[in-house]
Structures are given as C-alpha cells and as structure tokens.
Amino acid sequence: MSKPRAYTDEYKKEALKLTKEIGAKKASQELKIPYGTLYDWIKNERKGSIETGEARTPAEAMSLAEEIQRLRKENKDQAKEIKRLTELNDFLEEASAFFAANLIRRQ
C-alpha cells in the first residue's frame, strides 16, 4: 500500500489558484491530485484554514462577519437552552428523590 503524498502549503495555494482558473476537476487531473483531496482544500480555504493570500471582496468579508454574528447568537441561544434543561433536570432529580422518600416512609 502506498504512503499518502504530503503537500506543502505553497503547493496547495497554487493548486487552489489553478482550480479557480480552470475548475476543480481539470485541476485535479492536471496536477494528478485526487479530486477529493483538492475538494478538501477548497473547503478548508472557505473555512479559512488555508490562506491563499487573495484579498476577500467586501461582500465576502461582510458575509463572513454576518456568519460569525449568526453563529455567536446561535451559540448564546444554545447555552441558554442548556442552562434551562440543566435546571429542569435538577428539579426532576429533586422531585424524584422526594417521591422515592415518600414511598419508603409509607412501607
């Protein structure tokens, strides 16, 4: 079984630039890179894990800022829900202990 190839960051950047020019399928064939590997690099670039050095347009920067804002709000909402559910769970545990104690006293 062959060992997976290691690619430098510079190679990835250049491959991504080529991808933007000719498309992912052609770039993967031309560079002899598995399409899945190239597609992973594209996803990582979109997430910001791979920086190609290309400036983002104001619209892209704004959409990223909006997405960050939305994710922060979602995170805050989920934290509130977790707190509510934790409090409810604590209440139910106390109620369960109370009723269990009553059953034991009756016996």
Q: Could you explain the architecture of this structure?
A:
This protein is mainly alpha-helical and 107 residues long. 79% of the residues lie in helices and 0% in strands. It contains four helices and no strands.
Query: What's the total number of strands?
Result: 0
Question: Approximately how much helix is present in the residues?
Answer: over 70%
Largest sheet: none
- Give the percentage of residues in beta strands: under 5%
Mean pLDDT: 85
Secondary-structure element series: HHHH
Tell me the structural class: mainly alpha
Termini separation comes to: 69 Å
Low-pLDDT ranges: none
Note the overall shape. elongated
Number of contiguous helices: 4
Radius of gyration computed on alpha carbons: 26 Å
Oligomeric composition of the shown chains: single chain
Quick structural overview:
This protein has helices spanning 9-22, 24-31, 35-47, 58-106. With 107 residues, the chain is mainly alpha-helical.
SSE map:
Elements: H1 9-22, H2 24-31, H3 35-47, H4 58-106
Characteristics:
mainly alpha, elongated, 4 helices, 107 residues, single chain
